[in-house]
Each structure stands twice: as structure tokens, then as C-alpha cells.
């Protein structure tokens, strides 16, 4: 699960001389909220809908509507853009990309390869990647177990699932403390009646069972 697999390739770009009105129209037309800024083939910034609104005259301004329109018409992307946007390589994992967005409190990353802009990845792209990773659109059963965190526990659980004739869509875990961890299984079945007793006999506590339609 790498950035290159989930980014939007060859994003629409503008130059620093592009008027903010043209930039907004471009965003509206293409249903996007951000535009990388390119000058002479080089990335020099990023402009977002929010940035443009931030630098535009406030409606509470004492300026007349004509003065406001005149000032906005003269503004260019250069007046609103972020000059040093955060960039990542295409071979970065989506987990690292998500952490980077959180650390910088941003909702997108520009993807660079050999000093060339090749894509953009947003929070929405990361959510979609996680949906695919966890198999959330595939129907089945979601099973949560509380288990002792020890070597071989996942292999043992997988063996019991296999013996029940059930396919595992996805496995995830979250540590509860230094002793226990929660193991979440997404199973390609609508019946775990034969599996649950086998798990409990092995000392695995069934915390939650639910079905989902994908």
C-alpha cells in the first residue's frame, strides 16, 4: 500500500500569475479544492480554496462591493499560495503519509519523483485506501477477540479459522495493555457458529461479533 497506488496522478496545476478568480473557477469546474503551483516546470507552491478565501477582503470590510471586486480581480495565486508545501516520494507507504499529514495538520501531500510533480494524495485518498485494506466493501462477519499477546497467537487463530472452512479477508490488532491485545478478523462468511466454540476452547475471549454487507 504505497502512495503511488492511491494518489491522483498528473494533478491540475496553475502558475503564480494565475488570478485567484481563475484558480477558483478551475477548482469548481474540476471539483477539487487545491492546486499545485508550477513555474518553469518546478513546484513552487500550493494554493487551496481556503487560502484564497483567507486573503480575500472580508464581507465585514468597509470597502464597497466595487472596491472588493476590484481588489479580488487583481489578486493572483502568488498572493495566496503556500510557498513550501509538504512533499513525499511515490514509494512512501500510506501509513507514513497518514502520519505525516497528522504531524503537519494538513489534508494533502504533493508527490514528487526526481524533482518532478507526479501526483497529489489527500485525506480522502487515504480513507479510500484504508477501506480497501480492511475489505470494508466485502460482505462477511467482523469478529473481535481479546487474546494474550504472545508469539504464534495469530498463526493459531488462523489455523482455527481454516479448520472451520472460512476465508480471512483481513486481520488487524490493537494492544490493550502489556499482556492483552485485541485481534479483529474480517471473515468471508455469514456463519461463525462452528468457529466461536473452537476459539473459546483455546482460551480466546470473543468480545464482539457483527455482520456487514460491504
UniProtKB/TrEMBL annotation:
Residues 142-213 form the ACT domain. It comes from the Bacteria. Signal peptide: none annotated. It is an enzyme of class 1 (oxidoreductase). Residues 7-62, 81-138 form the CBS domain. Its EC number is 1.1.1.205. PANTHER family: CBS DOMAIN-CONTAINING PROTEIN, CBS DOMAIN-CONTAINING PROTEIN CBSX3, MITOCHONDRIAL. This is Inosine-5'-monophosphate dehydrogenase. Keywords: CBS domain, Oxidoreductase. Transmembrane segments: none annotated. One of its GO terms (molecular function) is IMP dehydrogenase activity. SMART domains: CBS. Pfam families: CBS, TTHA0829-like_ACT. SUPFAM superfamilies: ACT-like, CBS-domain pair.
Amino acid at each position: 500500500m504505497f502512495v503511488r497506488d492511491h494518489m491522483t496522478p498528473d494533478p491540475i496545476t496553475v502558475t503564480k500569475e494565475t488570478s485567484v478568480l481563475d484558480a477558483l473557477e478551475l477548482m469548481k469546474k474540476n471539483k477539487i479544492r487545491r492546486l499545485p503551483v508550477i513555474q518553469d516546470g518546478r513546484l513552487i507552491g500550493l494554493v487551496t480554496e481556503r487560502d484564497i478565501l483567507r486573503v480575500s477582503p472580508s464581507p465585514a470590510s468597509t470597502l464597497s462591493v466595487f472596491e472588493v471586486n476590484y481588489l479580488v480581480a487583481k489578486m493572483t495565486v502568488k498572493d495566496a499560495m503556500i510557498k513550501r508545501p509538504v512533499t513525499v516520494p511515490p514509494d512512501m507507504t500510506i501509513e507514513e503519509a497518514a502520519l505525516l499529514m497528522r504531524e503537519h495538520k494538513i489534508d494533502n501531500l504533493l508527490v514528487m519523483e526526481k524533482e518532478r510533480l507526479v501526483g497529489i494524495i489527500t485525506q480522502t485518498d487515504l480513507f479510500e485506501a484504508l477501506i480497501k485494506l480492511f475489505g470494508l466493501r466485502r460482505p462477511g462477519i467482523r469478529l473481535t477477540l481479546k487474546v494474550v499477546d504472545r508469539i504464534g497467537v495469530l498463526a493459531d487463530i488462523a489455523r482455527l479459522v481454516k479448520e472451520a472452512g472460512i476465508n480471512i479477508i483481513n486481520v488487524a490488532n490493537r494492544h490493550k495493555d502489556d499482556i492483552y491485545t485485541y485481534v479483529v478478523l474480517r471473515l468471508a462468511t455469514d456463519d461463525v457458529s462452528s468457529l466461536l466454540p473452537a476459539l473459546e476452547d483455546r482460551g480466546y475471549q470473543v468480545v464482539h461479533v457483527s455482520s456487514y454487507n460491504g
